[in-house]
Amino acid sequence: MLTFADALARLLASTTPLGAERVALDDAFARVLAEDLVAPAPMPAFDYSAMDGYALRSNDHLGAGPLRIPVVGESAAGRALPELAPGSACRIFTGARLPAGADAVVMQEHAERAGDTITIAAAPKLGAHIRRKGADLEQGAIALGRGMRLTPGKVALAAALDRPQVLVARRPVVTVLCSGDELRSPGEAAIPGSVTESNGYFVAAQARAAGAIVRVAPFVRDDAEIARVAVADALRGADVVVTIGGVSVGDHDVIRPALEAAGVTLDFWRVKIKPGKPLAVGRAGHTHVIGLPGNPASASLTFLLFGVPLLRALQGDAAPLPARLRVSIATEIRREAGREEFRRAVLERSDAGLVARLLANQDSGAVKSFAEAEALVVIPAERDHVAAGELLDVIRLADA
Length: 400
Fold this sequence. Notes:
By secondary structure, this protein is an alpha/beta fold. It has four domains: 4-18 and 171-314, MoaB/Mog-like domain (Molybdenum Cofactor Biosythetic Enzyme, Chain A, 3-Layer(aba) Sandwich), CATH 3.40.980.10; 23-42 and 136-169, Molybdopterin biosynthesis moea protein, domain 2 (Alpha-Beta Complex); 48-131, Molybdopterin biosynthesis moeA protein, domain 3, CATH 2.170.190; 325-399, MoeA, C-terminal, domain IV (Beta-clip, Beta Barrel). The chain is 18% helix and 30% strand. Helix 3 packs parallel to helix 6 (296-314) and helix 4 (224-235) crosses helix 5 (255-261). The longest helix is centred in the C-terminal third of the chain and has 19 residues, at 296-314. The mean pLDDT is 94.
């Protein structure tokens, strides 16, 4: 069995980013940039006022206050720029360009106006309340780099760069294939021994959140030839095929042999983690294949740990792996050492910071605990005891 780190490294090492496509900025949210976005001009493009007030030359108004200054002209955002008469002040509004020669702005709250004259208590400071040309970005600077996933803030920045379209990575096509005679869809009539299928919904939703286009295939029954044909069909046109169930060594586990019969070369099978040990990873040409175990928590966990980083890497994401936090553990943990373990937890705030509280049901077949979980607590393989209050790595599910 491979360790988690070795298995993940092998999976990502086999990944080549997909091609790129140009999309309208309205459709660019959550996509991964396939180009650097360079500032075509300084940002901001001109010096402007950060406040409503009065623009003036600071050197024209030296000495002890109070100072009485005539007001000549007005500068408003988007309007023609007035001239600044020597020794005068110009009425100015937030976002408006500075008149030539102006090097300070007096806030209107600090000026008393009477007719066309203002009185200020003291000489203004050079540069007060001014946003300088290029302060945000110099012309030619890389504003957004290749491999960045476009958040709302990054989309807004691309708009500020005057980019109506951007080049982004193609979205990977994922086919989800669930297997098992016991499976039925939600809402179908139940028969004794049947199970409502839920793993496919988790995988499909998580894959879409990672940027994929998802196709969910019909259920595969526990028949070797049916499974082989289903796998072959799933491979067509897919960048990633995710199978759920049937990858262990039971008499009715038909997916692993079906993968091999359909031409999938398995790179590894079984990973030294808990839950989720029976994980199959391979390739069929350019198509990646991940065979997840059938237990709900195991399937969800292994897709989060392996499937999501794979989808991000296929999009050229510069950060395919979720960030890890060091978090205090609320209660003592005793367990059998040997496998790296990922336990479901909720996060709580204390005076000392974040605390991870493990959920009671950590069974690999549990569905409810994954619905409640906010994080995965990572217990190193060699640890059989963790004291309450110790710090461990935690992966927030929102970051996975």
